[in-house]
Amino acid sequence: MQTIFAATWWFGRIGVEAAYQRWQESKESDSALRLLDAVVEGAAAVERDPQVLSVGYGGLPNRDGEVELDAAVMEGSRLSAGAVAGVRGVLPAIYLARDVMQHTPHLMLVGDGAVRFALQQGYEPQQLLTAESLRRWQEWRRQRTAPKEVSTERSPAEAHDTVGVLGWNAGHLVVACTTSGLAWKMPGRVGDSPIVGAGLYADNEAGAAVCTGVGEEIWRFALASRVVEAMRAGYSAQQACQRSVEFMLRRLPEVAAHQCAVIAIRADGEFGLAATQPERFEAFVCRDGAIERVQASSG
Ligand code: GLY
User: Fold this and answer.
1) Best of 182, 216, 220, 276 to mutate for ligand 1, by most ligand atoms within 8 A of CB?
2) Is 162 a catalytic residue?
3) Per the confidence metrics, is the pTM higher than 0.70?
């Protein structure tokens, strides 16, 4: 039986490689837990990579120079999910999201409460700023003109690229999503990534989807849930992604100025992707270890 992993952006290759390696090495006899473990490991590998400036360690900080992470995981059999938001000093945040799912009666913990839970679970506090992310924050601070500072200030396009990882095996679906969010965001700002239905969704009866891009736009359209519901209605994963993005662009044409992208796997294992700026979006798909780069198309 084929096993599929898919992940967003150039660093999606890191994600699918780590997921597939964990899948192969796993001694877990329960295939659903094995898939969960693999998908979470794929997301964690991207969090640990300091070259990735929008996820985990080395992610660009908020305007106060503090890295705040958002992460979530969902599995499609029981619709179980766990999420954390605005978490400081915890790595990988995706492990903590899984802990919320597996060891609490809740679906999301935020801020100090999430950090307290992490310490109870045995996580060691970590410095998530690297020399490079600190340097970029200091440069941003030097360049910004204080009187024009506004709360909705957008950051560079490169600075809000979430890693989303999908896993499929024998009709079972798992999705993980983790990000440091918009660079230079207001402290406490949360985007779509840890929000079930907005940044991610999985239901074995239909499919799974995960989003990346500007969280405010993705969230207002409940994009992940929209794509999964389109697959439930009978559309292919590719059609579901395309139709959902086209709806966003029709309903609010100004969304075209922002990158909002989604990847999806239907319950039968078919893959799709779409983006408001398709020429700038790529994903990686791994089918039984064979990795393919997939580019979004414009229509
Ligand atoms: N999609 C990531 C964010 O906006 O925070």
Assistant:
1) 182
2) yes
3) yes
